[in-house]
Please model this.
Amino acid sequence: MKNKAKFIVVEGLEGAGKSTAINYIYDLLLELGITNVQHTREPGGTLISEEIRRLFKKEFEGENLTAISEVLLIFSARSQLIESVIRPCLNEGIWILADRHNLSTIAYQGGGRNIPIQEIKSIQRMVCKNLEPDLTIFLDVSPEIGLSRARLRSKLDRIEKEDIKFFNKVRSTYRNEINELNHDVILIDSNKELDIVKQEIKQKLFQWFKNTKG
Ligand SMILES: Nc1ncnc2c1ncn2[C@@H]1O[C@H](COP(=O)(O)OP(=O)(O)O)[C@@H](O)[C@H]1O
Ligand SMILES: [Mg+2]
Model:
């Protein structure tokens, strides 16, 4: 019997190493014989969602995006991505390897922007319906380390310019909420050097793969 395609999400603060990890996990999946894998990133991943991403990151002189607008924009982009990429791929047996998903919204707009988490989860139910990841890999990094990596990488965007207090709230919400997920979670200490982070990802991903029998 053909095994069901899995939906894997990578989460964490800016500079946690999500993009780096996704490239590495792609190679690990190949090693496991999984060749049908689609990357996604949020917000983004479709024509409309990438437009929303641009809007989301942009700074407008004299007008701030409200916290509610942020949530609604993110979920608009997510709805487009789910219906035009994630669901069709999974139905065709293509694995999804996602850079951010619902947990980011709970951590950033819930923890960071103080929108009640239950309200976010209610929009989430409307947008995602029965769609649930099979696995979340959470790269836990301190905001100081993550932001210093992000600063080296490129100019900071609208969200990356928030203060350390904001990111501390985002991180603590991430850490609380991974215990509330209805699916498997791999927790990685991403403060460590890259070789060690990769080793830990490999060991835990292979163990998960064995436990779920592919
Ligand atoms: N464990 C690590 N130690 C040191 N540098 C890292 C580590 N993981 C990633 N980096 C570097 O930090 C920067 C941010 O990593 P990236 O994968 O883009 O993070 P994210 O996608 O989570 O924002 C990149 O330049 C990357 O090479
Ligand atoms: Mg990235």
Summary: Residues 12, 14-20, 149-150, 153, 190, 193-194, 197 surround adenosine-5'-diphosphate (ligand 1) (CB under 6 Å). The chain has a mean pLDDT of 96. Residues 7-211 form a domain with the Rossmann fold fold (CATH 3.40.50.300).
